[in-house]
């Protein structure tokens, strides 16, 4: 490229002219959300985007998107957007930068990687990424460089593992009923997701069922949030006690004759064993664990027991608790005891990942994989960077990082370890980003990245059934580059650009992925905008048998050896206390149970106007969210002499932080909720909520238990 070092140019209209100019662009929301919404984007005469809308033509998006994406122009044209490559001049984190050319920046990154490999072997370099974009090409091309260079492997554990594992342990496949069937249900159970804030399209279809069919909406969560306020029956459970509720509900279903025994005889592995196991799992037993009343549990069981068309929409809250795999499996089992799968508008859905069957071998360079290369856990980046021998798999240090699509200094567990690791003098860090995130602030080289309307990519919606094309609809600023560009340029400098899969454009990668997977090619997708991949009813509802070899749903999952979508490599084995997982659905307190020293359970739930750490830079999102706060029940506040707006301190063995208290009965006594992943610097002491979260691997396949923290609470001194 050879761009000369020069002062940052203002991001003007001239820099962003689309050709030809149209009135509407069609693309896809790229963010880490199961909805992957189809978008219509207003294109102004000057080449800038205007309002972003949900496509009314897409039957899942149905014209509805979240407010934060609707105002995406605020983010695209933000004055703080990164526009030029930068080299650190002062100490790490000091904030002193020098603008440099793209060529110089890429040369320095490649040189640092070569030095790291020469000193400690290829595993000293760790390409680190995640879901800042869900586009297949821009997100996953980094894997091709990793495998071609034999850099340390990446076990992406931070978001999905407990939920996916629990679901597939039961069904044998990561798929389920068409999510659009929620609109045909007579009861929609939204369990473990604040859909109003995080998956607005779930509410679109649930509310349609209510309006057109008189359907009841049940919401199960840990506090009275925006989704709970839409419920006909809202059940607020203590964090990590979902399995107890599910077991008590199944107890009532068996006891009162609601169980579909004929269905279970055909489709389940051991209904008799499950019924015997549940004899002591009474509503009284569950009430003491969950904090619900016996009457609430009985009412829920009676409602779903008398409603064949009950659709269980199971969310990612299960992936945030150490016993989340067990909780997901237990909730899923309720649908099988009822036989809900048989009915249109019935069954249980979590994610449709298995239906898309995208062949990404060329994109990700899987033919280059060396099985001896170590696999490092994304969630344990703090331990990896501070030299923890187990986290490093008893091999050498990581001394160089390339980071795309994620902000670990803010989002990763054990934040103090993470920050300490990033501040190592012997660690080289290159960050490719859209804004100067807190991870970029401690980098050595920062590269400016395109946003989704400025590049081509392919998307699939885990929360629905579509493969979608997200074409470039405006030109990016002249000085920013795509993720694919960075990978390709580094491959040239590192001597692997001649390997298969390199040297292709985004459109070529999309074409190859689609045709290798048996789908029509790029041109067809461009014309149609999306492919609907939803299987036929009998497959989606498992009426041809569940995904296990015998076609049976597993009430007795094989936690040691059973199917799971994201297992760690065989050489690592299972993770966490697998031996403690139960034979049948049950409450297991692998969570951080509150104790005398830490009497509160803290969850760090999503905010409506942020998406992880994304959107926290936009003025409207920050204004609407206000400031970092922790919700405290009035009874707890009175006991601790805390009033609304007071500064309090939360802490556990990992650290402590100060934060403002919001006194509200939205949370139950003994439970604290801190909404939103605010930047660390937005907190009173410059340390964010993930100071309090742990990086230990939950059973059976790891993850990050962000909503599973025992803490103490006190009014801050002074």
UniProtKB/TrEMBL annotation:
Residues 22-80 form the 4Fe-4S Mo/W bis-MGD-type domain. Gene3D superfamilies: 2.40.40.20, 3.40.50.740, ADC-like domains, Dimethylsulfoxide Reductase, domain 2, Formate dehydrogenase/DMSO reductase. GO terms for molecular function: iron-sulfur cluster binding; metal ion binding; molybdopterin cofactor binding; oxidoreductase activity. Transmembrane segments: none annotated. The keyword Acyltransferase does not apply. Keywords: Iron, Iron-sulfur, Metal-binding. It comes from the Bacteria. Belongs to the prokaryotic molybdopterin-containing oxidoreductase family. This is 4Fe-4S Mo/W bis-MGD-type domain-containing protein. It comes from Ciceribacter selenitireducens ATCC BAA-1503.
């Amino acid at each position: 490229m050879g761009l000369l070092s020069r002062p940052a140019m203002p991001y003007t209209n001239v820099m962003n002219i689309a050709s030809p100019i149209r009135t509407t662009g069609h693309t896809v929301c790229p963010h880490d959300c199961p909805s992957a919404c189809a978008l219509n984007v207003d294109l102004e005469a000057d080449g800038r985007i205007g309002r972003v809308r949900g496509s009314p033509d897409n039957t899942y998006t149905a014209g509805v998107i979240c407010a934060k994406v609707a105002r995406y122009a605020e983010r695209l044209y933000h004055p703080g957007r990164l526009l030029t490559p930068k080299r650190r001049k002062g100490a790490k984190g000091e904030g002193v930068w020098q603008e440099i050319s793209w060529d110089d920046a890429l040369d320095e990154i490649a040189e640092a990687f070569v030095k790291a490999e020469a000193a400690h072997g290829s595993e000293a370099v760790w390409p680190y990424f995640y879901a800042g974009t869900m586009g297949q090409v821009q997100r996953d091309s980094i894997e091709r460089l990793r495998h071609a260079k034999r850099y340390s492997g990446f076990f992406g554990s931070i978001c999905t593992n407990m939920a996916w594992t629990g679901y597939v342990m039961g069904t044998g496949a990561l798929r389920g009923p068409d999510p659009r069937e929620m609109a045909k249900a007579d009861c929609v159970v939204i369990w473990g997701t604040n859909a109003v804030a995080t998956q607005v399209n779930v509410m679109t279809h649930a509310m349609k069922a209510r309006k057109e069919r008189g359907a009841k909406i049940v919401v199960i969560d840990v506090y009275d949030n925006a989704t709970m306020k839409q419920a006909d029956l809202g059940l607020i459970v203590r964090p990590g006690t979902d399995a107890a509720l599910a077991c008590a509900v199944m107890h009532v279903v068996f006891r009162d004759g609601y169980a579909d025994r004929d269905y279970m005889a055909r489709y389940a592995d051991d209904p008799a064993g499950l019924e015997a196991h549940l004899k002591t799992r009474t509503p009284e037993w569950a009430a003491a664990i969950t904090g619900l009343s016996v009457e609430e549990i009985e009412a829920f069981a009676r409602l779903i027991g008398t409603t064949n068309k009950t659709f269980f929409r199971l969310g990612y809250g299960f992936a945030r608790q150490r016993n989340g795999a067990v909780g997901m499996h237990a909730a899923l089992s309720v649908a099988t005891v009822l036989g809900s799968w048989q009915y249109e508008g019935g069954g249980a859905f979590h994610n449709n990942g298995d239906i898309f069957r995208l062949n990404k071998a060329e994109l990700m360079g899987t033919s280059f994989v060396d099985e001896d290369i170590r696999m490092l856990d994304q969630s344990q980046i703090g331990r990896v960077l501070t030299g923890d021998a187990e986290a490093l798999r008893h091999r050498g240090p990581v001394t160089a990082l390339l980071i795309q699509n994620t902000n670990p200094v803010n989002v990763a567990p054990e934040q103090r370890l993470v920050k300490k690791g990033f501040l190592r003098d012997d660690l080289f860090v290159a960050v490719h980003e859209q804004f100067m995130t807190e991870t970029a602030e401690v980098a050595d080289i920062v590269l400016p990245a395109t946003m989704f309307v400025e590049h081509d990519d392919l998307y699939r919606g885990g929360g629905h059934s579509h493969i979608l094309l997200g074409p470039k609809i405006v030109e990016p600023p002249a000085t920013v580059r795509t993720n694919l560009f960075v990978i390709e340029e580094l491959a040239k400098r590192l001597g692997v650009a001649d390997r298969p899969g390199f040297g292709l454009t985004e459109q070529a990668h999309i074409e190859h992925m689609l045709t290798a997977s048996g789908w029509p090619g790029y041109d067809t997708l461009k014309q149609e905008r999306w492919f609907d991949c939803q299987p036929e009813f009998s497959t989606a509802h498992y009426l041809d048998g569940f995904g296990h070899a015998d076609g049976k749903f597993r009430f007795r999952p094989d936690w040691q050896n059973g199917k799971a979508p994201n297992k760690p490599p065989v050489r690592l084995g299972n993770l966490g206390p697998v031996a403690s997982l139960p034979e049948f659905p049950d409450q297991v307190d692998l969570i951080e149970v509150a104790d005398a020293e830490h009497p509160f359970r803290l969850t760090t739930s999503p905010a409506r106007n942020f998406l992880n750490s994304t959107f926290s830079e936009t003025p409207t999102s920050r204004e609407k969210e206000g400031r970092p706060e922790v919700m405290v029940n009035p009874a707890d506040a009175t006991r601790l002499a805390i009033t609304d707006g007071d500064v309090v301190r939360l802490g556990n063995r990992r650290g402590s932080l100060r934060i403002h208290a919001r006194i509200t009965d939205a949370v139950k006594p003994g439970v604290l909720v801190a909404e939103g992943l605010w930047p660390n610097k937005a907190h009173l002491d410059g340390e964010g909520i993930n100071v309090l979260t742990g990086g230990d691997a939950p059973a059976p396949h790891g993850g990050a238990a962000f909503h599973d923290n025992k803490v103490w609470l006190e009014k801050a001194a002074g």
